[in-house]
Design brief:
Thrombin, subunit H, 2 domains, six-stranded antiparallel β-barrel, 12 strands
């Protein structure tokens, strides 16, 4: 067959329909029409509602992992924030508690200092304020160390008081510190006076370990001593000024097998936990020296005078 007799048109299977330009024009016009119709008359609203209703379960299932992830992140963030807030609150509460304790301690210390200053005004003996540094290392003695020594002109044997009464006596003096033996020490004795009866006696430190008490010794079994009697310094020893409160009688044991009564007294001074004290000068330093004794005239001079 000659080549000129062949049909050059494509078979029906490969027909493309309208041209691409026609399709573009048609769909553009359709899209423009639908946009105008939807904007003006809302013709696609039912279709949108139907599609949204159908697709909502799918959207809910697809969004669950995202929601769970966001919820987990927020939970851990809120947990961390809560823990941080709790830690900050505990820290703030601890600081406030510490400040409250400091305020109470300062208020108590201020009250004691005011009482000590009041006692200083009532005592005419020259005095020196000092602070207790620590207790002595020997557990079998009742001694404390104060922050005043030779440089502050602290004398050996000086009485030591707190705001409530006699605390002890200076027994050792160093350049910067001094050692105070408390009235409750077993080797300490102080002459006292019963303010109710006027009877004198001597109070000794209780030898019992950790007793923190005094014992009024060598008092007759029938002596007029009652529980609650106030004991003050008598001043006969030349160390303590008279009238300083020392102790109060707490127990009187009149034993039939002994000529003396066993009298226990509780010190008025704070022998445990004292912070500030007042050191007095001993009375021996304030007593005027004894006038010199004149030598007797010789026998020869007496004869010449005659």
């Amino acid at each position: 067959m000659p080549l000129g007799t062949l049909d050059g048109t494509p078979p029906p299977f490969f027909r493309q329909g309208p041209s691409a330009l026609s399709k573009l024009t048609f769909f553009s016009a359709l899209a423009l029409f639908l946009m105008v119709a939807d904007a003006r008359f809302h013709v696609t609203q039912p279709l949108r509602s139907a599609v949204a209703t159908v697709l909502y379960p799918v959207q809910w299932v697809v969004l669950r992992p995202v929601v769970w992830a966001q919820g987990s992140g927020q939970y851990f963030e809120s947990l961390s924030a809560s823990q941080a807030s709790e830690e900050a609150a505990h820290r703030k509460l601890s600081l406030q508690s510490q400040r409250a304790n400091q305020v109470e301690q300062l208020a108590l210390e201020n009250t004691r200092l005011r009482q000590l200053l009041g006692l200083r005004e009532r005592v005419t003996t020259p005095s020196l304020a000092a602070q207790v540094l620590y207790d002595a290392a020997d557990p079998y003695t009742r001694k404390v160390i104060i922050d005043k020594g030779m440089l502050a002109e602290v004398a050996l044997g000086s009485p030591v008081l707190d705001e409530t009464g006699v605390l002890g006596q200076i027994t050792r003096v160093y350049p910067l510190v001094s050692e105070v033996t408390l009235v409750t020490d077993r080797d300490q004795a102080i002459p006292v006076l019963n303010t109710r009866t006027g009877a004198r006696g001597v109070a000794f430190g209780d030898p019992a370990l950790h007793a923190n008490a005094l014992e009024l010794r060598f008092m007759a079994a029938n002596a007029d001593v009652q529980v609650g009697d106030l004991l003050t310094t008598s001043g006969v020893d030349g160390v303590y000024p008279p009238g300083l409160p020392v102790a109060r009688v707490s127990k009187v044991d009149r034993r039939v097998d002994s000529a003396f009564a066993r009298i226990t007294c509780l010190p008025l001074a704070m022998v445990s936990g004292v912070g500030h004290v007042m050191v007095l000068k001993p009375l021996t330093t304030q007593i005027a020296p004894r006038p010199p004794v004149e030598a007797p005239a010789s026998i020869g001079k007496r004869g010449a005078k005659k």
